Write the structure tokens for this entry.
Amino acid sequence: MNKQPVAADSPGSAAPGVATPEQVSTGSTCRVEARGVGKVYGSGPAAVTALQNVDLRIGAGELLVVLGPSGSGKTTLLNVIGGIETPTSGRVIVGGRDLTGLDTDALSEVRRTMVGFVFQFFNLIPTLTARENVALLAELTGDTRRDTVQQRVQQVLAEVELADRVDHFPGQLSGGQQQRVAIARALVKQPRLLLCDEPTGALDPPTGRTVLALLQHLAHGEGRAVVVVTHNQALTAAADRVVRMGSGRIVADQHNPHPVDASEVSW
Ligand SMILES: Nc1ncnc2c1ncn2[C@@H]1O[C@H](COP(=O)(O)OP(=O)(O)OP(=O)(O)O)[C@@H](O)[C@H]1O
Ligand SMILES: [Mg+2]
């Protein structure tokens, strides 16, 4: 795969062989769309421009990897497309719903029902066990039937290979295990859009491959839109598409016609 960064600030400027956002989503149901999105934190001399004129479409069944230097806007992009932050300009459309102008209740409903987040720093509740951390999210989605919730919680914890650690507190788990609890927590709601910030950052290569395989399956096998922010170049081999960010902009957007199986990724 050609991994050279290519200037592609506007859809028309991509180099030959590099898919534009328009081309990439052709033929698939568009799950998420960012149009001319900008995000400025603060105001006056202290203002920080975190995103500038970002155009991005993410199709169902697509595994998208986002790379870029620290401070380039990757987390901000995830937060904006997941409805955690409101863009300063532009629009975000998720599952056919335009998030622009939604009130806090409506935004919360979109996040609760459609979006799963795996945060950069896990955000597990230290006083709840792995099982309870995951169940909390399942219950928040409105499914309060205890047996159904417990069954699903057990199932997702098994999927991330933590069936034997369900009653451990975060402080009793390794960094990689906590990361997998965070992934299970995002999966338990069966979100159509899964947004992951450095989901393999704390993992050793075998565990990282396991998690990557899971993310690949969620996209290719289950038709979810999966976005993975990472500093790990190795993940690009397994992605359908690689977006590179620099100074709040998308500086390259490349389609990978032959993503390799996660098990074959050399870390
Ligand atoms: N809440 C905030 N208030 C002010 N500035 C912020 C806020 N969040 C992010 N920023 C700034 O926005 C820019 C983009 O930050 P962001 O967290 O999106 O970067 P990143 O690409 O995720 O970096 P990293 O790889 O270090 O996680 C940075 O300059 C950052 O300092
Ligand atoms: Mg970040």
User: Anything to note?
Assistant: The radius of gyration is 18 Å.
